[in-house]
Amino acid sequence: MKQEYNLLAVGDIGTNRDNPDSIFNGVRETLKNGDLLFGQLEPCLSNVGTPLPQARLPMRGNPAGAEAIKAAGFDVISFATNHCMDWGREAFFDTIENLKANDLKVIGAGANLQEARKPVIVTLGDTKIAFLGYNSIIPQNYFATKDRPGCAPFRALTAFERIEHDQPETPVRLHSFPLWEDLQAMTSDIKEIRKQADIVAVSFHWGIHFVPAILAEYQKIGAYAAIEAGADIILGHHTHILKPIEIYKGKAIIYSMANFALDPPFLFAENLDLHNTAQHKELQELNKAWKDAPNRPMPPDSYKSLIIKVNIRDKEIKAVSFLPVQLDEASNPFVLTAENPEFNEIVSYMEEISANQEIITNYKVRGNEVIVVEK
Fold this sequence. Notes:
The chain is of the alpha/beta class. The protein has helices at residues 28-31, 64-71, 88-101, 113-116, 180-194, 217-229, 278-284, 288-291, 341-356, and strands spanning 4-14, 36-41, 44-45, 60-61, 76-78, 105-107, 109-110, 120-124, 127-135, 150-151, 156-162, 172-178, 199-205, 233-237, 245-248, 251-254, 259-262, 304-313, 316-327, 333-335, 364-366, 369-374.
């Protein structure tokens, strides 16, 4: 019996095009090499519902996208996204049903808090791998409660520290901390599932979107606490650009895997001239490179991505690496080889943003992949 497996993980996915299968054409063969495939669903996949007033960009795609995700090889999907309730409860439940109808296992969202926090365990041979999903980017009332549907929350509080205490309206430092009850719930979930699984993967929808490199304080607090509770790897997403990879106590924290197979935002902007909205212009201010190219749907950083490869042997993680991925202008991902100039650009980008955050990670190129953890 095979005892060595590869878990592949990617960032945000979701389509709203006529042929949703087409977005995976440049990565399909690589994805099929994985024994288990995880991804984060960004939009609802439904034709029903009404957009909620607090949704900044109500995102929903053709339900056929669920079938395309399964056909690409995915097994586990987190729906703990800041868009999960954009089109109300009807679209929320319809999306979950569409995913499950295609034999996709869903984490991070449910009919109530207990269901949203429920883990998924996948068995490969005699190895049990558990997945948990949480969301920190939560519009009002998008998180699940005891009697309300939504995502599993990992909320954060922001504090302002005045640099010059005697000078009104001068610059401040920002600090963020996980909400205590959510931190306790998350670590409790990990400790409980740790008793049943050989490997625990924790997925977080979190971070500061579009701003290069910068990590929020609550992310490190949460990631470290998750690992100390028993998590073996942290899989982050939401920011639409890559963020550093950190090694903590021998475990990999991938703070953001960036966009992977996510259609441009204007394809989700129903009846909305997105480029001319005040909201879109405010987002462009977050990334200088985007501000300098205002007609692009995303900043240049958003076209850099990766596939995380987790090598599992003898019921534990033996290595973590990534495969550099480049998105084209239509957001179609393509796996790069070491001969592609973009390959080294992505490796250099990861080195630069990690150094910016004073994170020491050795990105070792080996063939067409980049090793970050090896035992």
